[in-house]
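REVIEWER CHECKLIST
Item 1: Sequence provided? yes
Item 2: Single chain? yes
Item 3: Sequence as submitted:
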Amino acid sequence: MGSLFLQAAATAPHRLDPMQLILHASLVVKLVMLVLAGMSLFCWFIIGTKLVRMTAAQRTSARFLDVFWSKEEGNVWGPERLEAIYARLGGLEGSPLARVFHAGYVELAKVSQAGANAGDIENVERSLRRAQAGEMTRLENQLPFLATTGSVGPFIGLFGTVWGIMNSFLSIGAERGATLDVVAPGIAEALIATAIGLLAAIPAVMAYNYFIRRIRVIEAETEAFAIDYLNIVRRHFLT
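Item 4: Structure as written out by the authors:
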């Protein structure tokens, strides 16, 4: 009875210890893990900064719209009202809508000083489009790294796994046998690289899709605001 118990204890599976697998991995596999860890850390940095900036952008844009569409002013538009809105942009620097308005206001001021006419609406429209494109580029900055990590992370981990398995086959040849004692440690150390690759890629893909959706919402808001601003300029300033 005692011998059976000892035999069962000897053949029981060892506890999974990822840290031990990492420490005992070969140099190439460790380098692969280090690269993946660096990519993952940078992805989390991007996720944190983008989350803060986009939340601030949407919050300040809501405040800007409250200022722009002031209920007290109603539908009365004139240079004084635009100047008052422009003067309050200092506290709304994080808003893409505020930046688009700034570009449109500056261009409108230029054409007004030069003698405004109905044909100058195209200059204002081009200025708004440039500002919109710049805001979208700024919001999408660094997001391609998330997409890259999501795409290549598993394959980098797979490279480490393949390398580790090749080392296991070399061990089989050296030991002239294919027992589990020879093969299992190398394969386990190799598979941890694929696991780390997946841990780096999955959050990156999820964050990329989430931020792209939020950017498309902001893009739609800026396009709608640009159209409304052009209509106001066309009706009240460049007639």
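Item 5: Key structural point noted by reviewer: The radius of gyration is 30 Å.
Item 6: Recommendation: ____
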